[in-house]
Design goal:
six-stranded mixed sheet, 14 helices, alpha/beta, Rossmann fold, 421 residues, 21% strand, single chain, 31% helix
C-alpha cells in the first residue's frame, strides 16, 4: 500500500437534550385505552394493525403492546405487513423483513397475514384509484401505525407517517408503483394526503398510532388519534419531528464517510435529510448540507441485500457491492421512480483505496486539511468523528463535546478502516 496522507480524526458527541419515553409499553397501552371509547371497536371484532419496514426505535415493543392491549379488550388481532414493494415485493419477503425486526407470530402472540393482493376501494378527488391490502379489508377495523418523520423524497405539510402507511403501505406493490407515478404530477405530499384521506373515508380505520423519535433515535412521542384527527395531528407532529431530527454537526463537508446504509436505517438507505441529496425527479435537493463526496462502506445485515440509496454515494467498496441483491434493489428503486438511487458508484477494493481516491477529487485541499465527518449511519449521529480542521468550531460550540484527541486513521491488513465505535 502506498503511503497516503489522511486527516486526523477526533470523536465528538452532540448534546441534543430531547424528550424520551422511558416506559414504552405503558405509554402505548395508555394511549390505546384512551382512544378506544371514541372508536367503534367492540370485543370480538377483528383488527388489522399495519406494520411497515422502517427501522423504528422500539418497533417490536410498540407493536407487541398495541396488539396485546387490543387483545385484552377482546379483539381478534392480526398484523399486516404494510410496506409497498419492500421485501422484493413478495408476501414471503415482507414476512422476512418483519422477522428482521423481531416481529413474528410467536413473538407478537398474534397472526401475521401477508399478501400482495389489493382491492380498489374508491377514487381520490384527483381521480386516482385507491388500492388497499385485501387482508386489511377483511378485518372489522384497521389500526394505522407508523413513525411520523420528514420524508426522504419530498417536502410538504404531510410527509412520512400514518397517511403514508395507508397509501404506500396498504397499497402494496401495485399501489406503491401507481402512486409514485402520480406523484410526478401531483407532488408527493398531495398524493399521500388525498389517498390517505380516501382510505379513511372508504375503509374501517378505527384509529391511528403515531410515534415521533428524537435525535438520539429514541421514542419521544407516542399518540393515538381518531380518523378525523389524523391529518391535522400528523401535520403538527411532523413539525415537531423536524425540530427533533438529528443532523450532522457541520453542514459543509469535503467528505462524509458512512459505515452502513440499509432499509432499516432509512427508506432510501441513508436519510436524504441528513446528507442533503435527494435525487428525485420531482424534488430539488436542499441547499444544505453541502457535501462534496460521500463514501459508503457497507450494507446493514437487516437490509437483506437491498442497496437502494447507494446511488447517492460517490465511492463504495467491493465488499458492499458483493452483498447487493440486485432484484430486490431494482424492484424498490423502480417502484419509487428513483432508478438513480440504485446506481453503483465508483467501487474500490477496500476502504483505504476509496478514501484515498475521494480525497483526490475534492479540489485543491491538502488531505490533512480536508473537512471529513465519519458516521456509523444516518440514524446514529449522537457520536461522530470529525477531522482535525473542525476543532476550533467544536470548541466554540456548547452543544458539542470532545471525547478525545485527534488520532490518525487505522487500517487493517485488508486495507479496511478499523472501526472505533
Amino acid at each position: 500500500m502506498h503511503e497516503t496522507v489522511f486527516p486526523r480524526m477526533v470523536r465528538v458527541k452532540q448534546h441534543f437534550n430531547h424528550p424520551q419515553i422511558v416506559d414504552i409499553d405503558a405509554e402505548v397501552r395508555s394511549e390505546v385505552r384512551r382512544i378506544l371509547p371514541g372508536t367503534k371497536v367492540c370485543p370480538g371484532d377483528s383488527v388489522a394493525i399495519t406494520v411497515g419496514s422502517r427501522g423504528i426505535a422500539n418497533l417490536a415493543k410498540i407493536v407487541f403492546a398495541l396488539a396485546s392491549e387490543l387483545k385484552n379488550f377482546g379483539c381478534r388481532v392480526f398484523l399486516v405487513p404494510a410496506m409497498g414493494s419492500h421485501g422484493g415485493a413478495t408476501a414471503e419477503g415482507q414476512l422476512k423483513v418483519l422477522e428482521h425486526y423481531g416481529i413474528t407470530e410467536a413473538s407478537m402472540g398474534v397472526p401475521i397475514k401477508s399478501c400482495m393482493d389489493v382491492t380498489e376501494v374508491t377514487k381520490t378527488e384527483d381521480g386516482l384509484s385507491v388500492f388497499v391490502d385485501q387482508n386489511a379489508l377483511g378485518a372489522d377495523h384497521i389500526v394505522a401505525f407508523n413513525r411520523i418523520k420528514p420524508h426522504t423524497d419530498f417536502r410538504g405539510e404531510v410527509e412520512s407517517g400514518l397517511l403514508k402507511i395507508m397509501t404506500i403501505g396498504l397499497g402494496k406493490h401495485r399501489g406503491a408503483t401507481y402512486y409514485h407515478q402520480a406523484a410526478v404530477k401531483l407532488g408527493g405530499s398531495r398524493m399521500i394526503r388525498t389517498v390517505g384521506r380516501s382510505v379513511i373515508r372508504a375503509c374501517p380505520v378505527a384509529f391511528g398510532l403515531g410515534v415521533v423519535e428524537n435525535a438520539n433515535d429514541q421514542t419521544a412521542i407516542i399518540t393515538a388519534m381518531l380518523p378525523h384527527e389524523i391529518e391535522s395531528q400528523e401535520e403538527a407532529l411532523l413539525i415537531r419531528a423536524k425540530e427533533l431530527m438529528a443532523k450532522l454537526p457541520f453542514q459543509e463537508l469535503d467528505i462524509l464517510i458512512v459505515d452502513r446504509i440499509g432499509k432499516n436505517i432509512s427508506g432510501t438507505g441513508m436519510d436524504t435529510n441528513v446528507i442533503g441529496r435527494i435525487m428525485n425527479i420531482y424534488t430539488k435537493d436542499p441547499e444544505w448540507p453541502k457535501i462534496t463526496r460521500i463514501f459508503v462502506r457497507d450494507l446493514t445485515e437487516e437490509t437483506d441485500g437491498n442497496a437502494i440509496g447507494i446511488g447517492m454515494a460517490d465511492f463504495t467498496t467491493k465488499r458492499l457491492t458483493e452483498k447487493i441483491n440486485y432484484k430486490v434493489t431494482y424492484t424498490n428503486s423502480l417502484t419509487g421512480l428513483v432508478p438513480e438511487k440504485a446506481r453503483i458508484p465508483i467501487t474500490c477494493e477496500n476502504d483505504h483505496e476509496a478514501l484515498d481516491t475521494a480525497l483526490k477529487t475534492i479540489g485543491l485541499v491538502p488531505p490533512e486539511q480536508a473537512k471529513v465527518i465519519w458516521i456509523q449511519d444516518t440514524l446514529a449521529l449522537t457520536e461522530v468523528y470529525v477531522s482535525e480542521v473542525y476543532l476550533p468550531e467544536v470548541q466554540d460550540n456548547p452543544g458539542l463535546q470532545l471525547l478525545g484527541q485527534p488520532e490518525g486513521l487505522s487500517f487493517d491488513s485488508s486495507g479496511n478502516l478499523v472501526s472505533k465505535w
